[in-house]
Structure formats: C-alpha cells, structure tokens
From TrEMBL, chain B:
Major localization class: membrane
Annotated catalysed reactions: a quinone + NADH + 5 H(+)(in) = a quinol + NAD(+) + 4 H(+)(out)
Transmembrane segments: 6-25, 32-53, 59-80, 92-114, 140-161
Domain of life: Bacteria
Protein name as catalogued: NADH-quinone oxidoreductase subunit J
Organism: Nocardioides iriomotensis
Length: 543, 171, 129
C-alpha cells in the first residue's frame, strides 16, 4: 500500500517562500503581444470611433513587429546547454521552455500573424469597411443589422481578440508543463471561436461555424483536461521533464499513462484537425470570415503542432514505441480523409479545408522520423527539423491561397463556389496564375515550397524506417494533386458561367499578403537551405 | 466503515443519482437545478477527501456562478419550460451506451492506476488554501497571470457578441 | 485507513461538524414546517388555487419569458469576479510570506480584469437601460 505521493513542492514549508523568478527578457515576445492585446482593449474603450480602425491596425502591426524583433534578440541570446542538448533555458518557474524550437515557432507564428493582420485590416473589398460584422449582436436580416451596415459600423475589437489568440499561440508550443499548456490552449481557442462568428456576409453560416467550433472545441478541451489528470496521477507532476523521468522509469505499459497519452492526443489532434477529429474543419473554415480562416489555418496549426511535438518528444519521448503506432494510424487516416473528401467538394474554402486536413496528415508523417535528436554535421533530417520546416512552408501557402479567395468576388461577396471560378484564367490571368501557383505548391510540385516540405517530412520518416507510411503518403499526395489540378483546369480551360467571376482590386494590404505568400512559396521551393538550416540550428527541445 | 467513509458513500450516491436526474428529467430548468445538487454533492466529496479549498471553489464557482450562467443561457432561449420528452427520450439508447462506455473506460483506468494508492489523511490537508496559494503564487505564477488574460478576452468577446450599440454616441 | 484518530484529522473533520449539523437541521426544519402545515390546515383543493398568483389578476401567458442577450453580460461579469474572488483566498494565505511580490502578482491579475471592466463601462454595458 503506497501513500499518495505529495510532490516535493507541496511539502516545502511556507517559511522558505522565495520570490518567483520571471525571465522578462526571454518572455518578452509573449509579454509584448499580451501588452498589445491589452492596449487594443484600452484603445477600444477610449479612442473615438472614427480613429479606432487606424489606431488598432497600427498598434497590432507595430506590436507584432516589436515582438518579432525581440524574438530575434531572444534567439541570439539562447545559451547552448552543452553536449548536443539544445539551446535555451526553462523560464518562469518551469512553466515555459524558451529553447531553439520555441523561438523558431515564435518567429513563424509572428510573421504569419503580421501578414494576417493585413488581411484583417483589408477594407477595400467590402467598400470601405472590414470583412467583419458591423454589429455582431444584431440578428441577421433585421432592421438593426441594416442600420449597422448603412452607418458603416465595424467591430475593431477583432484586433485585440486576434492578439489574445496570438498570445495563446506563443504560449502553447513553449509551455513546459501541462497546466500552462491547457491555459494556452484555452487562450488561443476562445478568441478564435468568437472571431469565427463575426463574418459580415453569410452571417448565419458564420454563426453556425462559431457554435460548432466552440462545442467541439470545448469537448476536446475536456478530453485534454482529463488526460492531464490521468498523466498527473501517473507521474505525480505536471512538469514535462518530471513526466519524462517517470515515463523512462516505467517498464511495460501503465494504463494511466496510456490513457493519459490517448486523451491528451485527442485534445491536440483536434486542434490540428487530424482525422478522426477533423469534422469541424470544413464547416468552420467555410463559415468563418476568410481572413480568420487564413489566420487560424496557418497559425493554429503551427502552434498546435509545436505543442504536440513538445508534449510527445519531451514528455512522452521514452514511451515512443507506445504512441508511434497511434500516430501511424492517425496520419494515414488523416491523409486519406483529406485527400479523398477534397475531391468531392464544390466550395473552394471547403476544398482548402480538406487540403489543410491532408497537410496535417503529411506533417504527422514527419512525426515518426527516427531521430528526434539531431546529430550535427550529418545530412540526416530530424523529425523536428522536417516538421518545423513543413509548418513554415504550409503557413505561407495557406495564407496566400486564402488571401486570393478574398479577392474573387461577385455581388454577394466572395464567390466561393467552385463553378464561379471557371474561366478565371481568362478573366484575370494574373490572380488565377498566383492561385494556381499556390495550388501547385500545396500539391507538392517541384520548385515550390510544398515540394521541399514534403521531401523533408518524407525523408525524415523514411530514415526513421517508416517506409510503408511514406509510400502511402506519396500515393495519397498523387490523389491530392488531382484535385488541386482540377481547380487549375477549371480556371484555365472552362468557360465562365453566367456573368463570370470578377476580381476586385484589393488595397495594398491584401496585395502584400499575396506577394509575401507567393515569394515565400517560391523562395522556399528554390532555395530551402537557409530555413532548413535555421530549423536544424533550432536544435532540440530542452527539458 | 468509519463515519467519514459513510459520509463519502452517501455523498457519492447523491451525486450519481442527481446526475442521472440531470439527463433524464424532461424539464430543462429542473435539469439545471439537479445539476446544482450534483455539483454540491461533489463539493462534499472533495471536502471529505481533505481537499478543502477545491471544495469551496466548487461551491463558489460551479454551484454559484456556472449554474447562474446556465440558467441565464436557458432564459435566452425561446424554448418552453414545459416538459420536453423528445430532448431526453429520443435516441436514449446510443446515448446511454456512450455514457456507459465512457464510465467503464475511465473507471477501469482509474481503478487500474490507483488501486494501491491510499490518501494519508494524517500527513497534511493537501488541498488547503495555503498549499494552493503557495503553488499558484510561486510555481504557477505565469499561468495564473495569463489566466486573467483569458478572462479579459472572454469578457471582451461576450460584450462584442451581446451588446447592441446604442443609437446615440460615439462608443 | 491508519491512524484515523490523529489530532489533525479530528480537527479538520471536527470543524465541519457544525456545518453538517446546520444542513441536517435546515432540511429537517423544512420538512417539519411543511409537515406541520399539512397537518394543521384544512384541505379544499380547487384548480384556481393552483394558478400562479399575479397580484390578483388572472395570469396571462406562460411563466417563461425570453430575456435579452445583453443581460448575459451581467451573469458573465459575475462569473469573472467569482473566479477573481476565489483566487483571493489562497492569496491571503501567502500574503504574509511573500509580501509585496504577491501584491504585485495579484495586482497584475486584477489589473487585467479591471481593464475589461473599464471596457465594459465605456461600452455602456454597466448602465441599465
């Protein structure tokens, strides 16, 4: 009969209570983003309405750039831990690990956020207002709604809400204990649920998307929380390092640990949109305002995969043989679901949603590569490096593609039905060309970043001995290529239906987003070296 | 069986029975009120397990605030208060199956994991406010502070979703 | 359970005996009052007596009225401050040990929520219209 382990922390007496240490410099990107969100709320409260949009945009842009600059400084200041054990340190009383991968993910998320802010701020396409509801509380189709739209009202709260989500996204992959991870998960999710429901057009669809996302998200948070409870019961600690120690000290399978791993995986796989927890993705991606879809498709996936990597490599690294089969099954299921169901879609946003599910599957393929630990100086690709690189390529392609979706419009807003896209190549060859390029990138055609990304994850999985998985993944990429190319054929070789699609000239903001996405997709396809090196230099997770 | 164990068993019975009533009663409002009983009984269970602070948090937050929020949410709906049998009777079999499956799985995991573990009540009151304070304000100070960000985000969001702009003014 | 009669445990559970007593007495009191009522009163049941009492007028419609969504914010504010208040209890216990550091920690926490309150105030949520 053992006694319930009271963790050392609890048994310390109150007398030697020391001041908690917070490494403000290491945490500065996160703190800046929280500050920006706070400033946004204050701006919303005190700045006159006509100035709000400009001030909010400026605050968000300047704040994100400042956080990005600080990320670079933090990256330069990371201390090597010696002997191939990564860079960085555990900060904030063990709550956060500021290490190479963390800083890499922070940088990725912040750059993607910066261009998402531009998409959020686009006012040209809706004729002088943002793409967000003028008054969310007004029922669709009522007098109040019409009044809000004639007055040109807009919710500028979307900027602080977005920054709250970004704060959660920065915290999520950096969290070094399960409690912090859960708090981060909630902070990144809650504003996203709200933002999904704030579309200016097709509001019922948008509200339905928000509700579905919220219900299923709350459910998955429940799974995550229960997983935390089981893992705590098993390890007696929330800290990932302590969990890793407990795991490596166990021989055989412990039901508490396996149950905990399973439940935590459900919570995280839901966020990355992996099958069988993907059901929300098409509805939410379709219903949410396209700017929000772009933001969450790119940034949430980066943050959630970062957290998944940290949890599984640091916390459950020693139980690798227990969870690898699960990842195999989920990866194959996810790729198959995404690729096959994308074929049947008739809505461009839904198709991109299924494409993002397929991408989640490809990323999971990279998960099972052999060496989580880099051996410097060899040509081997580690799983971590491959996944980090894939996340970067995927993020830029996705934001770029959704940005193009926002400019193809008809009288009722965005023309998302695929039939409306036929003949776009004749109508405006330039936009169609850019979109075709993004699609080719997602399909993984050489000379695009999609190819190098896929090459990276497949190589690392192959080196890890997961060759059957790589074969399946390669076959499914071929299936995926079919539906991407179908859209290209539609754009170039079909005649316009009815009056045909029109491309509305966006303001410079969306143009920048499309240009950045395009440039990144080309650059990472042609010269992937620097970013791959950067991902390799990120080293590994510290514990 | 000691007196403490008797109290524990009684409270658990109350919790389980009222939880069943939550999902079986056809009145929506009754369902919310039975939830109060369930949550209250669980607070009692926490109390018996020497998790004093958690018990009172349960009473303050769940029995107090969350149920109020639930009732408000019910009042927002146009749903009638009368009995709504189709909410509880329709598709009860798959629902019962899922619930049973979850209960068996989680129960089995817990029993398998904790069957040798005994809580030593002599050592210390593990769930007191002192222990919680010590951990929250030192070990978990960052998640604690970030929690206020979550509350702020939720507050802003709630206002965005629910407030109809007044016809006058600047705000 | 070993050593069940130690002082700590006795003190802990002992401190809750009055609470238990109050709950038991409270429940008994309800039954006693209603029971006594039922024994003493004459019983002439008519359907009219079962109607909702609405100041002497016949009740109209149902007892259920849909409320406006803006009242939800009040309920939500209550939840926020309940959560806030809950953290004050453990804070009070460590205040002596940590001193001003803990004041700063709590100050930041409450400061964030106060910003939310300022926002609510500026948006006119706190005025009853």
């Amino acid at each position: 009969m053992t006694t319930l382990a009271v963790s050392p922390l609890l048994s310390e007496s109150v007398g030697d209570f020391t001041k908690p240490s917070i490494e403000y410099f290491d945490l500065s990107p996160l703190l800046i983003i929280i500050g920006v969100a706070l400033a946004g709320v204050i701006v919303e409260a005190f700045v006159p309405r006509r100035l709000r949009y400009v001030v909010q945009t400026l605050v968000a842009v300047v704040g994100t750039i400042a956080a990005l600059v600080m990320t670079v400084f933090v990256a330069l200041g990371l201390e090597p831990r010696g002997d191939n054990a990564g860079f960085g340190a555990i900060a904030a009383e063990g709550a956060i690990a500021v290490d190479g991968p963390t800083v890499f993910l922070w940088g990725t998320i912040l750059v993607l956020t910066l261009i998402s802010v531009f998409l959020f701020a686009e006012r040209h396409l809706e004729g002088g207002v943002t793409a967000f509801a003028g008054q969310a509380a007004a029922l669709p189709g009522t007098e109040a709604e019409r009044e809000a739209s004639t007055k040109g009202l807009e919710h500028t709260e979307v900027f602080p809400l977005m920054m709250f989500a970004v704060a959660g996204m920065l915290l999520f992959p950096a969290s070094n204990d399960l409690i912090t991870m859960f708090v981060a998960l909630e902070i990144l999710s809650l504003p996203l649920y709200l933002l999904c429901g704030l579309a200016r057009r097709r509001r019922l669809l948008s509200q339905e998307a928000a509700l579905k996302y919220f219900m299923l998200g709350a459910f998955s948070s429940g799974f995550f929380l229960y997983g935390i409870a089981l893992v705590y019961g098993y390890a007696g600690s929330m800290n990932l390092g302590d969990i890793a120690e407990a795991v490596s000290g166990t021989i055989g399978a412990d039901p508490l640990l396996l149950g905990g791993i399973g439940l935590l995986a459900v919570g995280l796989l839901f966020k990355v949109g992996a099958a069988p927890f993907h059901a929300w993705t098409p509805d939410v991606y379709q219903g949410a305002p396209t700017a929000v879809t772009a933001f969450m498709a790119a940034c949430t996936k980066v943050a959630a995969f970062g957290a998944l990597l940290r949890l599984f490599y640091v916390g459950f690294g020693a139980a690798r043989w227990d969870w690898t089969p699960m990842i195999w099954v989920v990866a194959i299921l996810t790729m198959a679901t995404g690729c096959v169901l994308a074929l049947t879609q008739s809505d461009i946003k839904r198709m991109l949603a299924y494409s993002s599910i397929a991408h989640a599957g490809f990323i999971l393929t990279g998960f099972v590569g052999l060496n989580a630990v880099a051996t410097p100086g060899t040509a081997e690709l580690t799983s971590l490096q491959a996944v980090l690189f894939y996340l970067v390529t995927y993020g830029f392609m996705t934001i770029g593609a959704f940005a193009v979706v926002t400019v193809v419009r008809d009288s009722s807003g965005e023309a998302t039905h695929l039939s409306r896209w036929s003949g776009l190549g004749k109508e405006s060859p330039f936009v169609a060309g850019v979109f075709a390029f993004f699609l080719l990138g997602m399909a993984g055609i050489p000379l695009t970043s999609g190819f190098t990304g896929k090459w990276a994850v497949f190589t690392s999985a192959w080196q890890g001995g997961a060759w059957p998985l790589v074969v399946v993944a390669a076959l499914l990429s071929a299936v995926a290529a079919f539906f991407y190319i179908r859209v290209i054929v539609l754009m170039y070789f079909s005649d316009p239906v009815g009056e045909g699609p029109t491309v509305v000239m966006p303001s410079v903001l969306t143009t920048i987003v499309i240009a950045v996405g395009f440039a990144a997709t080309v650059a990472l396809g042609v010269v992937p070296g620097p970013v791959l090196d950067l991902a390799a230099h990120a080293g590994q997770f510290v514990r | 069986m000691t007196a403490v164990q008797v109290v524990f068993v009684l409270l658990s019975l109350v919790a389980v029975v009222s939880a069943l009533l939550v999902v079986t009663t056809p009145h929506l409002v009754h369902s919310a009120l039975w939830l109060v009983v369930t949550l209250g009984a669980i607070a009692g269970v926490f109390l018996v397990l020497a998790a004093e602070f958690v018990a009172w948090v349960q009473v303050l937050i769940y029995v107090g605030a969350v149920v109020v929020l639930l009732l408000f949410a019910l009042m927002l709906t146009r749903a009638p208060t009368g009995p709504q049998p189709d909410l509880t009777v329709r598709r009860w079999a798959p629902a019962a199956f899922v619930a049973l499956l979850v209960a068996v799985l989680l129960g089995a995991t817990l029993v398998a994991g904790f069957q040798d573990v005994r809580l030593d009540l002599d050592q210390a009151v593990v769930g007191s406010a002192e222990v919680t304070g010590e951990t929250v304000f030192r070990r978990w100070v960052l998640p604690f502070e970030v929690l206020s960000v979550l509350l702020l985000a939720a507050l802003v969001g709630a206002i965005v979703l629910s407030r109809l702009r007044s016809e006058d003014g600047d705000d | 359970m070993a050593g069940s009669s130690t002082t700590l445990q006795t003190a802990y559970f002992g401190s809750y005996v009055p609470l238990l007593a109050i709950i038991v007495v409270g429940v008994l009191l309800v039954f006693a009052m209603f029971g006594g009522n039922a024994l003493l009163r004459p019983s002439h049941a008519t359907p009219e007596k079962l109607l909702t009492y609405e100041c002497g007028v016949d009740p109209v419609g149902e007892g259920w009225a849909q409320t406006h969504v803006r009242y939800y914010v009040y309920a939500y504010l209550y939840v926020v401050f309940a959560v806030d208040a809950v953290f004050l209890f453990p804070w009070a216990t460590v205040f002596a040990g940590l001193g001003w550091v803990s004041v700063a920690e709590m100050g930041v926490f409450i400061g964030f929520i106060a910003v939310g309150l300022v926002y609510a105030w500026r948006k006119g949520v706190l005025t009853w219209t």
